[in-house]
Amino acid sequence: MRILFLFSLIYLFTFSANAQKEAWFYLRASDTAFVPSFEKKGDYLVYTGNDARLEAALRNYKIKTFKKTWKHARKENLKKTFFVIADKEAMMTDLLQNAAHLFEFGELIAEEDKKIFEPNDYGLTSTIGENRGAQVNLDYLDVMEVPKAWYYTTGSRDVIVGISDGSVPTDDIEFAGKSKQIQESFLAKGHGISVAETAAGQGDNAYGIAGVCYDCSIYATNYGHFNNLKQLVELSRLGVKVINCSWGLAHYYETAQQAIYEMLENGTVVVAIGHNPSFIKTKGKKFYYPASYDGVIAVSSASHRFENYSENIQIEEDKGLYYVKNIRNYVGLTGGFKNNDTTQVPYLYPISIRNLNSAIDIVAPSSGLFRYSELVLRDKIDVSEFNQTSGVAPLVTGTVGLMFSLYPCLPADEVESIIKLTSTNIDDVEPNKPYAGMYGAGMLNTGRAVKMVFDMFAEKEPAVIENQRFSRWNFKLTSISEVLIQNQEFTEDARLDLTSKKRITISENTVLKPGALGKIHLKIDSSLEKECELQLRDPSILDD
Prior knowledge:
Layout: H1 2-20, E1 23-29, E2 38-41, E3 44-47, H2 52-58, E4 63-68, E5 81-86, H3 90-98, E6 103-108, H4 139-143, H5 146-150, E7 160-164, E8 179-181, H6 191-200, E9 217-221, H7 230-237, E10 242-245, H8 254-265, E11 269-273, H9 279-282, E12 297-302, E13 313-316, E14 321-325, E15 334-336, E16 347-348, E17 362-365, H10 372-378, H11 393-406, H12 412-421, H13 446-458, E18 463-466, E19 469-470, E20 474-479, E21 483-486, E22 489-492, E23 495-500, E24 504-506, E25 511-514, E26 519-524
Parallel strand pairs: 7-9, 7-10, 8-9, 10-11, 11-12, 12-17, 18-21, 19-22, 20-23, 21-24, 22-25, 23-26
Antiparallel strand pairs: 1-5, 1-6, 2-3, 4-5, 13-14, 14-15, 15-16
Helix pairs in contact: 2-3, 6-10, 6-11, 7-8, 11-13
């Protein structure tokens, strides 16, 4: 009996070890028309085409997946990229060498990057998932690394996302069984429908797209009540954890500010837009509310698609002027070239930059976002053409929903800190430099934000603070796990209040030099205990 048990352990260990060696990689074909044919036999795919060289190269491998994806595909390489899962890494090299007439590039996917989850409605960039939903490019969710967040959680029905906007049809397939309209609102041309879908539309149901926090519940209400935000307070008192406000006005009310404090104390985070007037009009001096109230996560828009401006240089035919559009991490949608010289780094057209100011906390993708209202109201697949901020806010709202879903006891006043600490620094992006201090901490990264919550409470790996430079804001963080700070700066007016149950390690390239208005407070408190357990999509993740 003991021998049999030992054999079982050895078998399980061997199976696990082999599974971990499974190779994931991307392959880029030489021709967009190339589509190899496969037939599924048992658990694996068998090549059924008539290319002898390809057949020979594939003969010695077990292939689980060989499918087209738009993920990580440059402009000229759209529809030429394949995602492959096979039993050996050598398959990629074999194809590049022995089927070089078909494939021009390959890239292995690192073990850490295999920790993703994709539902069956994850669009054209889907890799491990089978997209049976809308045929749209969801590369903006890829840039935010949302599948890495979904590895840990896809949301929870116990976490309610509030939508203060136009009405949301609670019987729609994407909202049915998980939503309520608390206060009636207007249709607003379907504005609320698209916002709700982006934040928390149902995922893995082979329809539409997956919202960021797609298993979260939704409470919808109207918008307005600018002086006291009573419709938001009502949601907070009903247990809503995060409220999306894709609206605002340019007037401050102290009563509304106090309402924000009340909601934060009640455990509710408010996300709101900095609004849409162009920078050429506002010049960083125009503030909108509730976004600019203290305690609100204020968002604005940035671009995401092309990694380098050289990938999307276009020409204005009438004037012969070259320009760029939708370049990743640029805070404007379009830009031009001094002296029309495309060898120089472009500058941003201020008219293509949405309202920025010192109250903005974070930016996120805005152009090319799926507009679910067009499908609901007009039976049409459509995406946003410009960079309005309305669609940005629900990306942040959904991220916050995932954070609360993973660890329901997460303090509401620490959410903004995590969002900022895990954002992508865009200060060194040359075209952004004239707008420094007005686009918040940088570009939203949902995957890192959710992973940081996991690391803070899983007690497996350190929670890492890295790769940012902060000279303002108050950061508060309480971690059960140890914390590692590296390649990080807190200077001038930045304040960091960090408590860990275990140790805090300050590693290389870390600068902790606050000025007269800043403060660094690091504390070890061995009496700290988790207030609740992590709620994982798959509990076995703790064993990874």
